Model the fold of this input.
Amino acid sequence: QRSPGRQRVGVGTMSPAIALAFLPLVVTLLVRYRHYFRLLVGTVLLRSLRDCLSGLRIEERAFSYVLTHALPGDPGHILTTLDHWSSHYEYLSHMGPVKGQILMRLVEEKAPACVLELGTYCGYSTLLIAQALPPGGRLLTVERDPRTATVAEKLIRLAGFDEHTVELIVGSSEEVIPCLRTQYQLSRADLVLLIHRPRCYLRDLQLLEAHALLPAGATVLADHVLFPGAPRFLQYAKSCGRYRCRLHHTGLPDFPAIKDGIAQLTYAGPG
Done:
């Protein structure tokens, strides 16, 4: 008869045969989801390590690279420099050139007098919008993190855009949207870019509606609606009857196998 201690060891130990039986499944999963695994390692593990070692955030490291490699006053060259840094050094989690072309084309096509961007981050999409604005156009961009906003402000001014063209507001979108009309003299947003947190898209869209900041015909663009995804936002936009919806299918920058998309909504009015 075995002792109780030896019985516990036997129960808690996986036999080599069972472990080997699971090996093909593990290998299959790693191969199938290798792009997601690379993304996880790059954006979480390696980024956290570099943050600790350098004392700088990724957007601060990217800006340091821009300062030494990009041409001041040339937003196109600054954007290309950020793309190069993201592809060759650290994945920046930015919009990237493929989505960027979609955004710039729509801004040029719609020629909005005023654009609202929720989620400045490093300023990449801000520069895309700013260089495509019509003469006299205005861009208000909102960033909740003060440290990130400081980097974005430097990048925007380095590109040559002053505060009359691009105004950066530091604060959460939930707090800023109700103040846009009174505090920032924004009576309507002809084009809105949602690029902050997908889980906040629906809340912020409904806030824009509630404060009558969307004129009929306004365009709302929302990034990352497929990855990581904004299902409640998409369901609302398709079912409420106030929007015409189109989805631009893309991949993530530097990870084209990971499918994502930009939602394009056209506001029909309060109905």
User: Anything to note?
Assistant: Residues 34-54 form the longest helix (21 residues). Confidence is low (pLDDT under 50) at residues 5-11. The radius of gyration is 23 Å.
